[in-house]
Amino acid sequence: MSGHVHEHIDSTKTYVVVLLALLVATVVTTLVAFVDLGNFSVVVALLIAVCKMMLVALFFMHVRYSTRLTKLVLIGGLLWLAILLLLTLTDFATRGWLNTAGK
Amino acid sequence: MNTAAVQERTNYLNESYGLKSWLLTKDHKRIAVLYFITISVFFAMGGVFASLIRTELLTPPGDLVSSETYNKLFTMHGVIMVFFFLIPSVPATMGNFFLPIMIGARDLAFPRINLLSWYLLIVGGALAIFAMVAGGVDTGWTFYTPYSTTYSNSYVIATALGIFVAGFSSILTGLNFIVTVHRMRAPGMTWFRMPLFVWANYATGVIQVLGTPVIAVTLVLVFCERVFHIGIFDPALGGDPVLFQHLFWFYSHPAVYIMVLPAMGVISELVSTFSRKPVFGYGFVAFSSMAIAVIGFLVWGHHLFVSGQSLYAGLVFSFLSYFVAIPSAIKVFNWTATLYKGSISYATPMLYAFGFIGLFTIGGLTGLFVASLGMDVHVTDTYFVIAHFHYVMVGGTIMAYLGGVHYWWPKMTGRMYPEGWAKLSALIVFIGFNLTFFPQFILGYLGMPRRYHAYPDEFQVLHVLSTAGASVLAVGYLMPAIYLFWSLRYGEVAGANPWGAPGLEWQTASPPPTHNFDKIPVVTQEAYDFSKVAGEVIEVG
Ligand code: HEM
Ligand SMILES: [Cu+2]
Questions:
Q1: Spans of all domains in chain A
Q2: Strand boundaries in B170-270, DSSP class E
């Protein structure tokens, strides 16, 4: 089924810029790990990771130039991850709201 | 050689011969046959475990097998039946065979990947069988932590690895179906002309692709904790055992719909064909499949009501669980409405369809019982839950599976099955099923816990009834195994369209040629349009 979708190749320059951005983000992640942000350490690390993931998906995996359907697949995957996290949090975030042991 | 064989034209079965032509085939129909053989073996294995369980439960003391062995028996029964039979059951066999034909395609989008997915099931199954032969697993099919990660001395890793690999088989099948439906429809086959069986398998594909990776990751995490003692589920290492249950059920609740949605697709075909009417409310039935695929992901916490999940989460999940019953109910009502003023014939597939509708309704409604917080505290981990899910998985999915096998048997093999024997066995299956599982509702309500091999004397009568039912059910399952095999050689030769059905699969030869159609069909009519059906109609009483 190849050949049907119009292939768009970015210039080498774009790829290099994205690569550099990814490397910088990695360095930042490492540096931030040494700063004590309490619970926010994880939040920051994950935020940076999400940005990196988007860069890889959009540029290296060509999602930026893909059909709307491909984008929908990507968004669907992210949405399902959100469902997993959010509904799991309905448990973990509300433990101890009631004064009964274990509830 | 008989006369029929002489006039037989080239088809997917006689096009080439030899083991290699099968093991390296890229034909979706042959791969479907490979799956049929494979999952029949798994079904038989799971059945043997079930018989041993039921035999042990004939008497109150645990006398036939030790508790350790009993734990392994119900675990391996569950693992084999869920991951190696029910998950692949309808999609990998009938879905593989008919989804492309029903939309007028020559094959699935990725024939090679289709073959790969069969090999993955074989590798996964081999790993699971290795684990059983080496000593078995005793965690239950649910692998709850901390038992599975810290305490169990059985072959948890090998079994988990087997399920992990089989999971990829399921993902690839789902992916293949999704892409095929998007890209391979024949000219004129618009989305809303697709048979409901295709819709159901498409929705199932979405669940397979979105859900299965999570169980794969979860099993990897179990592996990491068991082998490398990385703290994920063990509180002593900073983990949380309830997290395992969240992750497990995030997949496994949707997985029950992987098992039942394709079965519902089969029922839509059967009800329409044997009422000679289009399915009532086609759009609703199609969308209800998609709704199930989505809502099915929002309810998993109903398995954690008594597991230490917060009460607030319990309320949210209980509330959401009621929603998932709505699309299922839409289907049941629409099938029933289809029968109204239909020209109904009681051929074997239709008997199975009736069985499905009745039993699935009981299974689904008891799902609502256990989805209500107060009721579930009483019946959780009892035989009530066992009865609930066997009504949907055995009374639902396996009924539809058998109905579909009979319905499409003439198409797949070119031979009719013996109608009299088939009707008799459908009846035996129905009676045996209810005798096995109805007493389990009562047992559970009275307090018989699941996964125990000894019980108080008061429960014996109901357990004996259940075991008797299981024996009847076994006869009902063995009969098709025998007469279908017999019919391959001696069955009446089937024409292209023995049921007078309008679907595209009936417009090509029985068995179909390797490329399904001599000429790619151009579709000009809606699904289930009986007004233009050509071809002979076999009269069945
Ligand atoms: C109609 C909507 C349904 C609802 C609201 C529902 C609800 C539930 C609930 C609340 C439980 C947990 C009970 C407990 O452990 O105490 C449960 C268990 C179960 N259900 Fe359903 N269910 C539904 C349909 C189905 C279907 C269609 C299937 C399979 C095809 C299914 C398969 C199962 C299985 C396998 C279990 C037990 C898992 C285990 O603990 O081993 N359910 N169901
Ligand atoms: Cu569930």
A1: 1-65, 67-103
A2: none
